[in-house]
Design goal:
Elements (H helix, E strand, L loop, with lengths): L1 H18 L18 H4 L14 H4 L10 E17 L5 E5 L10 E8 L11 E8 L4 E4 L12 E4 L1 E13 L2 E12 L8 E6 L11 E7 L2 E14 L5 E10 L2 E11 L2 E12 L1 E13 L3 E13 L8 E3 L4 E2 L8 E13 L7 E12 L17 E13 L3 E2 L3 E2 L10 E13 L2 E3 L9 E17 L1
Antiparallel strand pairs: 1-2, 1-3, 1-26, 3-4, 4-7, 5-6, 6-9, 7-8, 8-11, 9-10, 10-13, 11-12, 12-15, 13-14, 14-17, 15-16, 16-19, 17-18, 19-20, 20-21, 21-24, 22-23, 24-26, 25-26
């Protein structure tokens, strides 16, 4: 019992740190929310070698050189699912993503512009853009009288990534790109800070049963650098083989917040969240690429360096530092996706129509000892389906809205992309956790619908 009370004291003071390393909405690669555009989501997130719309800012900045004129994409994800817990004694509990659909929904926005299209002809090889994504969005809750309520009852992490991006086309076969990754919090998303709640176990003089909340916010930065190589092209000079290489650097987000008991502040606390470096290699091949139709197959392999997050030591306003080792491991992520597209078919002459599917396998980087049920850190298999529609020329979007206009303020094309992903998680039996109430078996499922709107100017 003494060891358990020591753990409770440490976890209460460092729970803000623990909240920041739990999985994103319980899906999408354990910790990371990878679907950042419906075209990619429909292909199992295998998009780093294709990267031919403004969401390239997330998947492969170098691909932005393929995006003509001025374009924008904005989208959101409707996420649902739950996690079921069974204790060694048979006691059951269930958590969800803050409701049947997580709110606010993880969203994204991109705006790109080729400088040549803006009248700077000498810089026609340069494309710039800015993106805003929710790469680590988290919103999970459990019953306040649940079996591990001294570990967590709810957690929210409305972290956003602002991505100013520049891409340069070296020649027909090589493009390079770089983007800054500015991680911060937004006041219009939830409470505008990371927040985790739990019930006191009676440590630190806090009466058992009292409500504990830790919150905080901060800003950190990293960088993404990439290459896009297109060694083979068809007669229309379109790529039929593309190779993408992407490096995302580690980023440190300093967090400063407060410990609240029953809503009243009792101490300041701070920690440093280390986001992992990620290496991505991708290959896309078009067995068919003509003026009438296209068929692409892509393989992406990632290596996520979670071992850089060695600890989340929590610094208190009293000068005391609470050690919090994490013991995370590096993991691979494999994604395979395909897209089949009809270009202005006779049955819909002013449209491009695409169907997509994909698969992602991700491994669990979290050991039993430091597992936190605030998120679903489980190995998983994901299947996805998607469709896309791009209307141009004399077409009418939804049969009502002209898809192209003569005014510079009216788009030259309007697109809608939809994707559905289902995550099938391996069950996990946690043994020997720092908090014994967390030990047990976890089963989870998550599904999401992704919607993106695209505008070509």
């Amino acid at each position: 019992m003494r060891a358990y009370h020591i753990w409770c004291m440490n976890s209460i003071l460092a729970v803000c740190a623990l909240a920041l390393v739990v999985p994103t909405d319980g899906h999408a690669q354990s910790f990371r929310f990878q679907p950042q555009g419906a075209r990619a989501a429909g292909q199992g997130n295998a998009f780093a070698a294709q990267a031919d719309d403004p969401s390239a800012m997330h998947y492969n900045p170098a691909g932005l050189t393929q995006v003509e004129g001025i374009q924008s994409v904005w989208g959101f994800n409707a996420v649902g699912g739950s996690v079921k817990f069974t204790s060694p004694t048979g006691l059951e509990s269930r958590g969800d993503l803050n409701g049947s659909v997580s709110w606010p929904p993880p969203s994204n926005f991109y705006l790109s512009a080729n400088l040549g299209a803006m009248g700077v002809s000498m810089l026609s090889s340069v494309t710039v853009g800015v993106g805003v994504t929710s790469p680590f969005g988290l919103n999970t809750r459990y019953p306040v009288d649940g079996p591990f309520n001294t570990a967590v009852t709810s957690v929210a992490l409305p972290l956003i990534n602002i991505k100013p991006t520049i891409a340069y086309k070296v020649n027909e076969y090589l493009s390079v790109g770089v983007s800054a990754d500015i991680y911060t919090f937004a006041s219009f998303l939830g409470e505008g800070h990371v927040e985790q709640r739990q019930i006191s176990a009676g440590a630190l003089g806090i009466p058992a049963g009292d409500s504990i909340e830790l919150n905080g916010k901060g800003t950190g930065a990293g960088v993404t650098a990439s290459l896009l190589v297109t060694p083979l092209r068809n007669g229309d000079r379109q790529p039929i083989l593309s190779i993408g290489l992407v490096y995302r650097s580690q980023a440190v987000v300093p967090l400063n917040g407060a410990l609240l008991v029953n809503g009243a502040k009792v101490a300041d606390a701070s920690t440093d969240l280390v986001l992992p470096q990620i290496f991505t290699g991708a290959v896309a091949f078009w067995p068919v690429r003509t003026r009438e139709r296209e068929w692409k197959v892509e393989l992406d392999v990632e290596y996520v360096g979670w071992s850089l997050l060695r600890h989340l030591d929590t610094r208190l306003s009293t000068g005391v530092t609470i050690p919090q080792p994490q013991q995370l491991k590096n993991v691979p992520v494999i994604a395979i996706g395909t897209e089949y597209k009809w270009l202005h078919p006779h049955w819909l002459p002013n449209w491009e129509v695409a169907v997509r599917s994909g698969y992602t396998r991700t491994e669990d980087p979290v050991p039993d000892r430091t597992f936190n049920p605030a998120g679903i850190s489980l190995s998983s298999n994901m299947l996805s389906l998607g469709v896309g529609f791009l209307c141009q020329g004399d077409g009418r979007f939804l049969g009502l809205i002209p898809c192209s206009g003569k005014s510079g303020l009216w788009p030259k094309g309007i697109g809608l992309d939809l994707a559905y992903q289902e995550w099938f998680y391996d069950s996990k039996s946690v043994v020997g956790n720092l908090n014994p109430t967390v030990d047990g078996t976890y089963h989870a499922f998550v599904h999401l619908g992704t919607f993106s709107f695209r505008y070509l100017f």
